[in-house]
Amino acid sequence: MKNKVALITGASSGIGLEIAKCLAKRGFDLVLTARNSDKLSKTVKNLSAKFPVSIDSVVSDLHDSKAPNEIHQFCISKQYKISMLVNNAGYAIASPFDETAMEAEEDFIRVLGISVIALTKLFIKDMLVSGGGKIMIVSSVAAFAPPSSIQILYGPIKTFMNRFSEALNINYNHKGITSTAVCPGYTVTNFHTASGVQKEMDSVPRFMKKSAQRVAEEAVEATLNGKKVCVPTKTFKLIVFLLKILPHSLFPLFSKKLAPGRYDKK
């Protein structure tokens, strides 16, 4: 049976890849998942060349309702004792809500919400048997912000994930399991291009764009320390603080500078 093993979803690029590097530096063996087999195999090869840890992978598309069980069964078959579950996989829908097929919305909710719940439900049982574990749920500053005029379901789902993480802590902290909701702001990855909002991202002030490496380092440190919520970087800690105390009616006054396109009236 292996010890100190982390499972990371969406691990072939962006924040997920940087989290994998951070954990490998700390001596964690890794089980990486992603839906693109070529990118995933290259990721495993590159990380294996840099870090003296065991790295395995399983190709999985979290759009598929069977995926969480398949990932869990893969870990059982390899006798991987998952001590940290990193729910990182995610994306956003580029098209307007009224133009998006319901099937696409359901797929979106499954990846960002239902799969997180399913994987957590499966692996938390193993953590209870082993006496504890760490769960990371990569959420977003959008969880604290007013509803956006683009990507209409993204913020609400992230808010739900924060509350889910909070509920996990209330129910399982006394059994040695902690959950950390990681809420990054604008992070330089391929996420915005893939989500159809690269134009808005290009307009964001430079000081608000943070590296995936920095976000990952703070996320991993917070999770290992059992912190309930992690907002990486001082910039976004301040922004979240202001979002909590300022009336949302004031947000449009400065959103054109700080969040271009996200709060424009349609």
What report would you give on this structure?
By secondary structure, this protein is α/β, with parallel strands linked by helices. Helices cover 48% and strands 15% of the residues. It has one domain (5-258): NAD(P)-binding Rossmann-like Domain (Rossmann fold, 3-Layer(aba) Sandwich). It is built from ten helices and nine strands. The strands form two sheets. The protein has a seven-stranded parallel sheet with strand order 3-2-1-4-5-6-9, sandwiched between helices. It has a two-stranded parallel sheet with strand order 7-8. The radius of gyration is 18 Å and the shape is globular.
Layout: helices, strands, pairs:
Elements: E1 5-8, H1 14-25, E2 29-34, H2 37-50, E3 55-59, H3 67-77, E4 82-87, H4 102-130, E5 133-138, H5 154-172, E6 177-182, E7 187-188, H6 191-194, H7 198-202, E8 210-211, H8 212-224, E9 229-230, H9 234-245, H10 251-258
Parallel strand pairs: 1-2, 1-4, 2-3, 4-5, 5-6, 6-9, 7-8
Q: Which CATH architecture? A: 3-Layer(aba) Sandwich
Binned strand content: 5-15%
Measured distance between first and last alpha carbons: 56 Å
CATH superfamily: NAD(P)-binding Rossmann-like Domain
Rg result? 18 Å
Overall residue-averaged pLDDT value: 89
Strand order of the largest sheet: 3-2-1-4-5-6-9
Number of domains: 1
**Quick one: CATH class?**
Alpha Beta
Helix content class: 40-55%
Shape descriptor reads: globular
Named CATH topology: Rossmann fold
H/E series: EHEHEHEHEHEEHHEHEHH
Entry summary:
This protein is α/β, with parallel strands linked by helices and 266 residues long. Helix content is 48%, strand content 15%.
